[in-house]
Amino acid sequence: DIKGFAFDLDGVIADSARLHSKAWHQTADTVGTTWTPELAENLKGVSRMDSLEMILKAGGHENEYTQAQKEELATAKNTQYLELVKTLTPDDVLPGMKAFLDELKANGYKMSVASASKNAPTILKQLKVMDYFEGIVDPAKLHAGKPDPEIFSLAADVLGLAPANVAGLEDSGAGIQSINAAGELSIGIGSELSEAAVRFDRTDEVSLAAIKAKLA
Ligand code: BG6
Ligand code: MG
Q1: Catalytic annotation on 102?
Q2: What is residue 48's predicted lDDT score, i.e. its pLDDT?
Q3: Whole-prediction pTM value?
Q4: 135-136 sheet: strands from edge to edge
Q5: Nearest listed ligand to the Cα of residue 19
Q6: Is 10 annotated in the active site?
Q7: Ligand nearest to the CA of 117
Q8: Phi, psi at residue 111, to the nearest 5°?
């Protein structure tokens, strides 16, 4: 029985995946890596430094930068990302997700956040949705990011629930793998998530009734 939900943030609650992409696209241009839709998709759910490594590798530039230069590139990306984040308001909660959070709250489900982003608290505050959640997993404390199960296991701990009683929501392939490996019910939002136990094309399709219908 599902008693709680662990939410990814970027691309699930917040319309911020496009802002990450915009900022990383600029990084790719800076280092001379061609930006492709495939690269953009593969970066979803991946931590800041791992994302930079993937961008460098995609262009064969992985050996051209020192650790200090890599940290500078990552900091520059985050500075630009935070500029874009300033424009986010409660209207940038993705379609239907506020209603879904309200539905879960009204029905006594517990909620936590399992985002790879160190900026998650900032964004949740800006979207005015912080109060829905029992807690947020701190990605700085992880030994391994998505697709490792650690973050979604910790998101179940935050809820005080066994993984079997938790459903995870994700827009990334790495995130769906993390949920599955944690032994939770995976709910994918997006077209490319074939490993998700339940899948929706868009956030505005997600509701308790729609999840139950897909599981039946
Ligand atoms: C994930 C995003 O939620 O967080 C990634 O999907 C992002 O695109 C990652 O790179 C890390 O975010 P931040 O804000 O800590 O750089
Ligand atoms: Mg995401």
Answers
A1: no
A2: 96
A3: 0.94
A4: 135-136, 110-113, 4-7, 166-170, 185-189, 198-200
A5: 1
A6: yes
A7: 1
A8: -130, 145
